[in-house]
Amino acid sequence: MSRVSVIALALGLAVSSLALTASAATAPSPAITAAVADSNRPQADKDRDTDRKPAEMLAFAGVKAGDKVVDFMPGAGYFTRLFAKAVGPKGRVYSLLPNEIATRSQKAVDGQKALAGDKAYGNIVPLVEPVNALTFPEKVDVVWTSQNYHDVHAFMGAEAAAAVNKAIFNALKPGGVYIVLDHVAEAGSGVRDTNTLHRIDPETVKKEVEAAGFVLEGQDDALHNTSDNHTLKVFDPALRGHTDQFIFKFRKPK
């Protein structure tokens, strides 16, 4: 290979690397800023904003007015309520809880009930579906899952994870986005720590999601924490709320 070819290859790789992180710098839209400032949000959610950086997360996901968004395994609805205000009255947010989690976690069930009964967010539609046969009422623009991808492995296994990723791929519109945010496990650990430390190796997530047909478009390092050595359980008081987390944006090809 000639010197010119080597330089051209290096420049191409550099451009590709920049492309993967470029979307992380997107400024929050007025709709996203208003969603974070929404006075109807529970105080417990607002208290977590400094650590969870919601405006940056929604901007990275590209959530906009009129979008149809799925919050997969929504917990108590921290992001679900934000999505609801960001997409506005012409949009819709599906809070999708797998049956397998509902039967294990009363907290998850209570979270769904709270979302269904919150009149301040009339465009949220709670759903409970079997993880190996997820169905969606319509094609959607964004599927989001936060701090829960590892739970699919921990409670349901690799086959379930593959089924989930494929169902999400099929549910998205062409060009739609799948965001995965989770706690970082030690490099090379695969799914070893999903049930014990509640972490997962980011490289494992990349491989699994790309196997469903997605293309990795970018990542955001806003929740990266170098003081987390990836050996503690995420609920450890010394670390809870401040774990090292990865955020990947995958896109369904058009």
TrEMBL record:
Origin: domain of life: Bacteria
Gene3D superfamilies named among the record's database cross-references: Vaccinia Virus protein VP39 (3.40.50.150)
Position of the signal peptide: 1-24
GO biological process, one term: methylation
Keywords assigned by UniProt, alphabetized: Methyltransferase, Signal, Transferase
Cross-referenced SUPFAM superfamilies: S-adenosyl-L-methionine-dependent methyltransferases
GO molecular function: methyltransferase activity
Keyword Methyltransferase on entry: yes
Database matches in InterPro entries: S-AdoMet-dep_MeTrfase_Alr7345 (IPR016980), SAM-dependent_MTases_sf (IPR029063)
Record has Cell wall biogenesis/degradation as a keyword: no
Protein name as it appears in the record: Methyltransferase
